[in-house]
Write a structure and sequence with these properties.
CATH class of the largest domain in chain A: Alpha Beta
Mean pLDDT of chain B: 90
Strand order of the largest sheet of chain A: 6-7-8-3-9-10
Largest sheet of chain B: 2 strands, antiparallel
Strand order of the largest sheet of chain B: 1-4
Structural class of chain A: alpha/beta
Low-confidence stretches of chain B: none
Mean pLDDT of chain A: 88
Number of domains of chain B: 1
Strand content of chain A: 25-35%
Shape of chain A: globular
Order of helices and strands of chain A: EEEHEEHEHHHEHEHEEHH
Oligomer: heterodimer
Order of helices and strands of chain B: HHHHHHEEEHHHHEHHHH
Largest sheet of chain A: 6 strands, mixed
Radius of gyration of chain B: 19 Å
Helix content of chain A: 25-40%
Distance between the termini of chain B: 15 Å
Number of strands of chain B: 4
Number of helices of chain A: 9
Chain lengths: ~240, ~325
């Protein structure tokens, strides 16, 4: 039987000089659930997922993925194990067509099987609503469509763990709704770790919420539990917890 | 017509034109085209790294020279026949690319340009240092008697054109196929956005090394072919301007297109040929033409074609 937690970090710490971006973060991520990682600006959320995905080297601490210690693995190997990552600042292949973008993302696993590769590319374009724009050059897309394409690059990899760094940033209301529906549909067989500032998205999607503040794990629980937590309130509102 | 069949038609069409040119061109231009095809092989090799992978090497002359000296020394000192000497030459360039790539690819951007430039300068100086064997700057001749395969003398105009054509066709078609394969698409992904490619799970370091090795090996084929067909091996082919030439050809012709290298070499060759007939300051004419093309067609001649006419151009 697969373990309950797909990902665990122990003592994960990142220091820049004397400043701790993350300090001793012990974190578990339950399988096939949506977990939202929230916290004020500068709380260390992106640093944390950077260390999970391998983009950022931790100062100390370990990361276990599906029971395997992946702390020493470079980012691409972690992706090969079944992670996918979407960037906070849109990162696509600007000079290539929408279809080529998705095809490259699907191609790591499927390039040896032309039919499956093409089918997967079509399916992802369909699912994300970019089929009409498949021939458009990615840099010509509107901001919202570029964000959507970024998510499509993740989907095309069929990840076990999908890490999304502020995916709804700058999206219009309607696009956010579509995103929420998409995430709910995915959660059946994908674990999602979502960094999100939009509390409506968090409330509508997350099974679990984890709060980071000043690089430390502050609270964890359901959205309602976390919302009621006074330490969380003070971290967001800047009032002392004991007032 | 699908993109694939259009691409096949185009590439075979280019080769057909080159084959026909042999019969219709006057002797001088037949000789010129033999040289153009050999240099275009060099540009094709360079283009894989620069045009498709987005890595600018300023030291590709070392691979051209490795092929050239690998062939010339194997024949002259080793007394080997053409085919084994050619194989040694290509292997030498490939091995050099493995070593140089392993070290140079630890750097990126400007540092990569400088490191490759330095490696090429080292190769150039090594050639001069071992002047006893390489004859240094002066170079040496590969004798006519040594330039034949199975009794066919490759120094005749016909055999030379045919050999250049076969080698060019091989490199041209293989490279066209390669850049449209999953491997080639991944190189383009690196050029477009290296970090994104890495975060899709591609081993970017390994892919870049593979691109450099293929690029260096093809450049080596060109170097060996040059020595074989034109019979001269000299250190000037390892000097810095021979690292800059392929960059100019590829920029002019269209970086990241399969036909760009040939167009670039052809254009540059005839530009210099034409302007040197007008004035002694022929490099000035060439320079102005280069500036104009860079200004008005920054993606090169084939780049313009791709933008305006053939969007599917690989």
């Amino acid at each position: 039987m697969a373990a309950v937690n797909i990902l665990e970090t122990r003592g994960l710490t990142k220091s820049y000089g004397g400043v701790h971006a993350n300090k001793d973060v012990d974190f578990v991520l339950p399988r096939n659930k949506i977990t939202a990682l929230i916290g004020p600006n500068g709380a260390g959320k992106s640093t944390f997922v950077g260390m999970v995905s391998g983009r950022t080297l931790p100062t100390r601490g370990t990361v276990h993925f599906e029971g395997q210690d992946i702390s020493a693995l470079p980012a691409h190997k972690r992706m090969q194990l079944g992670m996918a990552y979407t960037f906070q600042i849109t990162s696509i292949f600007p000079g290539l067509s929408v279809e080529d973008n998705v095809s490259l993302a699907a191609g790591r696993k499927l390039a040896h099987d032309k039919a499956a590769h093409a089918a997967k590319t079509v399916a992802v374009l369909e699912k994300i609503g970019l089929s009409d724009r498949r021939d458009q050059i990615a840099s010509d897309l509107s901001y919202g469509h570029r964000r959507v394409l970024e998510i499509a690059l993740g989907l095309a990899q069929d990840p076990k763990l999908f890490i999304l760094d502020e995916p709804t940033q700058g999206l219009a209301e309607g696009e956010v709704d579509a995103f929420v529906t998409l995430m709910r549909g995915l959660a059946k067989d994908t674990t999602i770790l979502l960094i999100e500032h939009n509390m409506r998205v968090v409330a509508d999607t997350a099974d679990h919420v984890t709060v980071l503040d000043q690089g430390r794990l502050l609270a964890s629980g359901s959205f309602d539990e976390v919302q009621a937590n006074t330490a969380v309130q003070s971290a967001y509102l800047g009032t002392p917890a004991n007032v | 017509m699908t993109t694939q069949s259009k691409s096949i038609t185009l590439h075979l069409g280019v080769l057909a034109v080159l084959a026909v040119l042999f019969f219709v061109l006057p002797a001088y231009h037949v000789g010129a085209f033999s040289r153009i095809m050999v240099l275009a092989i060099y540009a094709i090799g360079f283009n894989l790294l620069f045009g498709y992978t987005g890595l600018l090497s300023l030291g590709h002359a070392m691979f051209f020279a490795a092929g050239m000296y690998g062939f010339g020394l194997s024949v002259n000192l080793g007394g080997l026949p053409v085919i084994p000497a050619f194989a040694i030459a290509v292997a030498t360039a490939g091995l050099l690319a493995v070593g140089a790539g392993y070290l140079a690819l630890r750097t990126i951007g400007v540092a990569f340009m400088i490191v490759t430039l330095m490696f090429a300068q080292t190769v150039y100086l090594v050639i001069l240092y071992f002047g006893e064997y390489t004859r240094g700057d002066e170079g040496f001749i590969v004798q006519q008697a040594q330039r034949s395969i199975a009794g066919i003398d490759l120094t005749s105009e016909t055999a030379r054109y045919a050999t250049a054509f076969i080698l060019f066709a091989l490199c041209f078609l293989v490279m066209a196929r390669l850049v449209q394969s999953p491997f080639g698409r991944r190189l383009v992904a690196i050029r477009e956005n290296e970090e994104r490619a890495r975060m899709l799970g591609y081993d970017v370091g390994r892919l870049k090394l593979q691109a450099l090795v293929v690029s260096g090996t093809v450049s080596g084929v060109a170097g060996a072919a040059y020595a074989l067909l034109f019979g001269y091996v000299g250190a000037s082919f390892a000097a810095v301007h021979y690292s800059i030439f392929p960059l100019l050809w590829v920029l002019l012709g269209g970086a990241g297109t399969t036909i760009g290298p040939l167009i670039g070499v052809m254009f540059m060759f005839y530009l210099i040929d034409f302007s040197s007939g007008l004035t002694n300051a022929y490099m000035l004419v060439a320079g102005v033409a280069l500036v104009l093309i860079t200004l008005f067609a920054p993606h090169g001649l084939a780049g313009v074609l791709r933008k305006k006419v053939f969007k599917w151009l690989p």
